[in-house]
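User: Write out your own:

AI:
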Amino acid sequence: MAPNDSAGTNGTAAPGTKGAEAGRRKAVRYIVPVAVAGVAAATIGLVPALASSGDPDLPKITAQELIEKIAASDTQQLSGTVKISTDLGIPSMGGLAGSFLPDGAGDKGSASADPQTKLTELASGTHTLRVAADGPDKQRVSILDNASEYSLIHDGDQVWAYDSESNAVYHAQDRAGGSTGKGEHRAAPDGVPTTPKALAEQALKAADGTTSVTVDGTAQVAGRDAYRLVLKPEQSGSTIGSITVAVDAENGVPLKFTLQPSSGGKAAIDAGFTSVDFEKPDASSFSFTPPKGAEVTEADEAEDHGKAAGKAAEEAKGDLSAFEGMNVIGEGWNSIAEIRTPGGAALPSKASGDVPAEAQQFLDALGDKVTGKFGSGTVFKTRLVNALMTDDGRVYVGAVTKDALVNAANDAG
């Protein structure tokens, strides 16, 4: 087992390391507290069902070297199975989703296989994914349920999505050419990570002097030897306890990603391969022909159909430009976004008739009434991201505790 090795991000260089300091900072910029809002909206996790045969005995590696190994990984071909679940501590939405949608926004006319909406299902529950990739222009992600399968296939400039349950097909042309030009591929819509690597890339971006980074031994994931890279906040008050990335010892590919909340309990975000193969996938993995009788919706048709619903949605949410610009309070893991409504207008509520009763009931299940120098308001809670909405029209949100939000609102005056 590789011994623990630390690479703190407080900016203090050891004697004799000035020559490596620039490289350390360049690589360590990939380490960040998870982009809180984005991860909360699209974070996913894994039910641990990974093959394990003890901790492998691997050569010693420093945290800095392991970070550089991840950044330098250029693996283009792989296939395997990923198991995903989420435990954010959010009450079940049940049939409440329709309460938040304007009339016509969710009718049958929209494409049921549209990946932009289908893949957001990964934000809750437990799912098994089959994935494959062969360079920047060929990827496939399939969500396997008990009796159905949803597949998203990217082959050159063609993108197909198929929902076997509804026998619906969605087709689009990838005008971006598959790659974003930043080493990222459009195998799924933006903000929907489907592999441990995609999750790790969201977390490993930039250090700001608030993160402890260590190598905490080794592990075996999906039959592969791996190092365990652990990130922890050096600040108190964060809802994030630690992030662990199991990194393939041979090629630097993240095999497992785990986010542990500071409140304890099981992981809130945890994604990992149960099986993985780095050989070239069969070409048939990326070919698709619509099944007989399937209803095919072209992307342009779906876009035209959604215009009326989009207009209604704009009217329903009002003129967001009226909100004052976002102010960020604090730094690092304890960053809190402050947003003010114009003129201190009260937020939508059941009493004002702006929020359906069912939706308000859902929100109330999340909320705690609080008071302070700022006045009064409600803190809405999940295991990762909390938000304080004051009665005078201010919003404070971050991956921080309820007390941290109240203190930020008190200090803001």
Summary: The first helix runs from residue 18 to 28. DSSP finds eight helices and 19 strands in the chain. The radius of gyration is 23 Å. Helices lie at 18-28, 36-42, 63-72, 115-118, 196-203, 299-317, 357-366, 402-412.
